[in-house]
Hints:
By secondary structure, the protein is an alpha/beta fold. It is 35% helix and 16% strand. The protein is built from 9 helices and 8 strands. The protein has an 8-stranded mixed β-sheet, with helices on both faces. It is globular and about 40 Å long.
Amino acid sequence: MHKVGVLGSAVVGQTLAQGFKTHGHDVRIGSRTPTKLGEFSSSTGIPAATFAEVGAWADVLVLAVHGAAAEEVLRQAGADSIRGKVVIDTTNPISDEPPVDGVIQFFTGPNSSLLERLQSAYPQVRLVKAFNSVGSARMVNPVYQKGRPTMFYCGNDAQAKVIVSEILQQFGWEPADMGSAVAARAIEPLCQLWCIPGFRQNQWTHAFAVYWS
């Protein structure tokens, strides 16, 4: 089991924090204003602290904030504190512009990714992209009649990906390693694809699955 620090207190952060606690990990959740999480902490038993406090305490971190804030939140967590640690990056580079025919807009281009930007800014951190291609309601132990859905992940550190793969399996996913951080150029746009049925037909309960021959 890990000491898991979740950086981000919105619905994704709270969902994953509870998921890690359910699976026996020691969990803390970080926020710019931890006092706003009093009710959440009381009901779940998950302590709230600042990003810096959580960054220093955890051995595995989960980055669960708006994509535009991701780099700043890692800075607040502390470059020295998070050095060498596994950071599961759940973020997507979603811009402030409204969707176009159901397609959310990104502030990155097709030949770049937010994960790569974060890895460049924090080369000492072992970043792994995961949990970005499904809605929060299905992140923890999703149940589908056809079996386990697929969670695509990528990163530059092989051992970090082993840890994340184990977590994904624990959370009820079939992990699919897509390679280095460059693969986030393909994984992050899965968020755009996933959102189209939601915005067009109000369908938000699906997940991706790959069937290997």
